[in-house]
Amino acid sequence: MSGQPPLAESPVTRLREHLDDFLGQVDRWAAELALAAPIPPAVSELEHRLRDALGHPADLVVVPIRRPQAAVVLVAYVDGLVGEELVHRCILRPLTERLPEPADEAARWLDRGLLPGGRARPVHRLAEVVDGLLQGCALVAVDRPAGMAIPVPPASPSSPVPPVPAVPSSSPSRVPAVPSSPASSGPAAGSGGAWLVDVRQFEHRSIDDPATEGTIGGPREAFVEVLRTNTAALRRRLRTPHLRIEELDTGRQTRTRTAIAYVAGRADPGTVALVRRRLESAPWDLVFSEEQVEALLQDRPLSLFPQARLTERPDVVAAGLMEGRVAVLVDGTPFAVVVPLQFWDLLQSPDDYYLRWPFASTLRLVRLFAVLLMTVGLPLYVAVTTYNQELIPREFLFTLAASREALPFPTALEAIVLSFIFDILREATTRLPRQVGGALTIVGGLVIGDTAVRAGIVTAPTLILIGASAMAAFALPTFAAAIPFRILHYVFLGVATVFGMYGLVTAFLIVLAHMASLRSVGVPYLTPHAPYRPQGWEDTLVRAPWVMMRGKPPLIGRETGRGR
Known about the structure:
There is one protein chain. By secondary structure, the chain is of the alpha+beta class. The protein is 44% helix and 10% strand. It is built from 15 helices and twelve strands. A five-stranded antiparallel sheet has the order 1-2-4-5-3, sandwiched between helices. It is elongated, with a radius of gyration of 31 Å. Residues 147-191 and 560-564 have low confidence and may be disordered.
């Protein structure tokens, strides 16, 4: 046997792989060139090009309709994106029963929008056909004679294919109508011999309670993964003609539908233009999550602090729009991205607006104390017990010294190790089923804590502080709001271990200065307190009574030249 490994590739195999990659690129370039071509007049050629453009998919359904002495009609759709009953009732049955036999009269009949609901939209190029099929439309094409002239408008490669404005429905009986195109004066004037009919209907999750933003009062409604359902939820809450919803495609390959929502006259036009520009310039082929949209809207992507708010509650988004904010909704995700974001928004819960103002203000102050406890509580204890024992009262110092007399580890090491253990326990409970997650938290915390104290590995004060810091993380309204403070907890813990109280105070001031320098799409992060503004304070750290907020909320505007 030779010394060559048994699984080593031969030069011929590597050459074949490179050749296959090259041929795959050639096929992709050919498909992109073919998509810019006009729709062929023969439906057989159209079917062949469709299958080539989509890679001969198994879920492409092609139904030819052949009648004696009549033009051949081709119906194509993607299985799973359309409603079978809608296709049969709105397309197949009318085409077989009422479509005129000559090709020119059939094209004129379709152009006049005589299909049920009048939802036929003429298309001229293969790229429009492919884009419509992937959005959940059905293609209706009429076989055209050789002498039938069809005007085709010039292609515009810079502008995307306009979407079909339709609403996905979970019930076949609810079919939204879309205004039809104007009637043609000649044989298929304005059409390319093909039409897209909106029959999209697919399975999706029903509207349920918010999973990450539970409240005691208020509506029990959350966004779902369907974009049109989410925009309808905003329309129901903001019945104003000033609500603007702009849709565009994001992602070079996926062309994910995203919607920009704002209220005209309240949102800053510069902020709206900035959000639109950043979404249009997304550098990825695949856009599928709200985190990618948040990354596009960040002014400082390396900062620990979030610069956009993620929420799954329509009432939170509607309230933000009325405050002059801009929301971005992505098709396929139940979360909306709201900008700009201030630090005080991390301390606000939807429950604050369903409680009286004294309780809501108290709860916000409690959350601020929870942030401080989670961030600097344990590091402050480590710094004092390690470097500045003179700050500890004498009675407590004697008790602490007696409890640490037989411990083998320093305070800093036990604090870091126990913090890691509690974070591991917390992550494990979030991944477990709900039936056993709570039991694991209680049993794991009790068993680990009690055993560690009895074994003389840790002290009771350290364990109490770590437990309080862990509970403080759940006092914030959302899980994502606590993540930067959990990271800063370890940073401050390391600084307090090495530099003591002076290092901890210096690190805290550095973080505070960083927060003051942050901007969310051009809006200062700590506004209206830093920089100070006389308006807007009534709904930041405290919540003023409703009688003091009955006027128009202040506009949230960008600072000129910043956040671009």
